[in-house]
Each structure stands twice: as structure tokens, then as C-alpha cells.
Write a structure and sequence with these properties.
Layout: E1 5-9, H1 11-18, H2 25-33, E2 38-42, H3 45-58, H4 64-76, E3 79-82, H5 88-98, H6 102-114, E4 118-119, H7 123-131
Parallel strand pairs: 1-2, 1-4, 2-3
Helix pairs in contact: 1-2, 3-4, 5-6
């Protein structure tokens, strides 16, 4: 018997797991929840987190060795990556309906497809999750 997923995780929460300056009670509670279950994310989630790491490196806010450590940690987390079943047209409509970026529309689409609440610190995405009845993970 496998454990159920508990939430869909977005980049704002994942980055909080990797950097103390981005962590808060919410990201800590989400990470703690992963000790007994797993999260779900769109297949490209690690790429978005990688993009944040690269930006921090280029701004000299993160040493290259620390970025590699963060990537190793990311790979060990119990995150089940999910391929989107929606067409670009469906994602376009979802993004427009809620005023989201295409990336954030994929998080919402993943939550809608799995029936899991969304773990996010992004206010627009929280509103969209609430309006779509998937809800925001409360921890």
C-alpha cells in the first residue's frame, strides 16, 4: 500500500527548503510533512528551481558548490513528478482565467488533476487555488 500524496508543491516552497533566507514556518511544515508522505509537482519543477539557483549564482548570492548541494538535496526529496495532460490551449485558458503565468498555470493544473491542495507562498496562485476549489495546503 503506497502513501497518498499530500500536496502539489511549487517553486516558492521548494526554494524555501533549500535556503534559510527563503524558509519560513510554512515551508518548514511542508518539508516536515514529507517525512511521512510525498508531494507532487509538474515534471519541469526541478528546472524552475534550477533556474533560481542559476540566478543566485550569477548575482554572486550563492557559491557554485552550494548550488550543487541544493540540487543533491532536491533529488533526495520525495517529489513525484507528473506530466501534464492538458493541451497548450487548455493551459492558456486556465492561465488567463486566473491571471497566472504559464508556469503557475501548470501548478494549478496539477492540483486540479490530482485533487491535491497546492503548497505555495505565491498570493496569485493561492487565490487561483481557492477559486478553483483545490485549496491551499495549510500545514
Amino acid at each position: 500500500m503506497s502513501l497518498p500524496g499530500i500536496f502539489v508543491v511549487d517553486c516558492s516552497v521548494g526554494v524555501g527548503w533549500l535556503f534559510d533566507e527563503q524558509a519560513d514556518d510554512y515551508t518548514e511544515a511542508a518539508l516536515q510533512a514529507l517525512t511521512t508522505s510525498f508531494a507532487v509537482a509538474p515534471r519541469w519543477w526541478p528546472i524552475e528551481v534550477l533556474n533560481v539557483l542559476l540566478a543566485l549564482e550569477r548575482r554572486k548570492r550563492l557559491a557554485s558548490g552550494k548550488a550543487v548541494e541544493a540540487l543533491r538535496l532536491l533529488q533526495r526529496l520525495p517529489i513525484q513528478l507528473r506530466e501534464s495532460q492538458s493541451s497548450l490551449f487548455e493551459l492558456h485558458a486556465l492561465a488567463n482565467r486566473h491571471g497566472l503565468t504559464s508556469y503557475d498555470a501548470l501548478y494549478l493544473e496539477t492540483a486540479l488533476a490530482t485533487g491535491l491542495p497546492l503548497a505555495t507562498r505565491d498570493k496569485a496562485l493561492q487565490l487561483a487555488a481557492t477559486e478553483s476549489d483545490v485549496g491551499v495546503w495549510q500545514g
